[in-house]
Input
Amino acid sequence: MIKQEHIRKIIHIDMDAFFAAVEQRDNPALRGKAVIVGGSPNGRGVVSTASYEARKFGVHSAMPCSQAARLCPHGIFVKGRFDAYKLASQQIREIFFEYTDLVEPLSLDEAFLDVTENHKGMRSATLIAKEILEKIQEKTQLTASAGVSYCKFIAKVASDYNKPNGLTLIPPEEAEEFLEGLEIKKFFGVGKATQKKMHSLGIKTGADLKEWSEIDLVKAFGKSGRYYYRICRGIDNREVKPHRIRKSYGKERTFSDDKGEMNWITTFLDELSESISEGMQKINAKGKTITLKVRYKNFDTITRSQSVPNYTNDHYQISTVARQLLEDTDVGNRQVRLLGISLSNLNLSEDHYYEQLELEFRKGLGSVEC
Ligand code: TTP
Ligand code: MG
Output
């Protein structure tokens, strides 16, 4: 049973036929038509998405374009325009942030929001969801669907329940019944291969899944069996995790014994710079401000910073600045227990985040231009 005192208010928002809806919005000739986003009917690519008019013919995301053309011969193929999708995505995110900072985007067109505490002091999550859908329509001329519940899993499934332009609330007392009647293919987090296996084992709905013991589910599906056991009972304590844009990158070390010898300290700072440089290169980050942190033996802690004219993650430049900063400290005269270096003023921005998303789309979800 769900403990009432810990109840969260979670909203999942998902845009309707997102890329196709943007295309229909921007080109009136496409409105009401079967639109297939993703290149040409003869191309070798796959469909990014299709308008609801095209879906009636069986066209769906990730389907080869050639197959989509066969199923829907009158379908109009359009190339993706990623900039337009990014802009709409930014606009909807701005709306989300009016209500809460706890926004976890899953892709350009969907996000979880935790509105238990919210900026407007509103008590009804359903009312918040309704306002958000209205604002999205007003600002972008696009529609979205929302699911409202006490956990991520049910909110996500609920947003899909009444698409397009739908709002579905599943309060805790209705969760079990809702999940029991739910088809396995609608279970978020149950992949295609698992669905197939479940079907072969006679598991077609949440109610079927619920008949299995945790041990048997783990035997059949490995560790994920535990997840299945819990979600079909409406138990999902996962938090909404906002993507924070990284503000700094650094490393520090507390030594097992206090250090005072200058040669040892400068060598240590060189090594630290090297390790920071490697780490930053891996995530493609550079920074302009370098900060040295020193904790003396008596726990007094100081920082010294210097900015460089260029964005850098260069090992040599970091260690050179760190050594200069060291001169402005009492290191050499006083023993230290901790040393650290960090870079801030990073070149990572919202754009960086979207770049990452774009890459994910290209990798996993079929290319935008096929
Ligand atoms: P979805 O939200 O899965 O789909 P959708 O918004 O087009 O339709 P729905 O109304 O069912 O939510 O994906 C959002 C966008 O992501 C979609 O418009 C295009 C892109 N996408 C791909 O490029 N490839 C894919 O395989 C999927 C699933 C989505
Ligand atoms: Mg969508």
Observations:
- The first strand starts at residue 10 and ends at 15.
- Residues 262-282 form the longest helix (21 residues).
- Residues 14-19, 48-49, 61-62, 107, 109-110, 163-164, 361, 365-366 surround thymidine-5'-triphosphate (ligand 1) (CB under 6 Å).
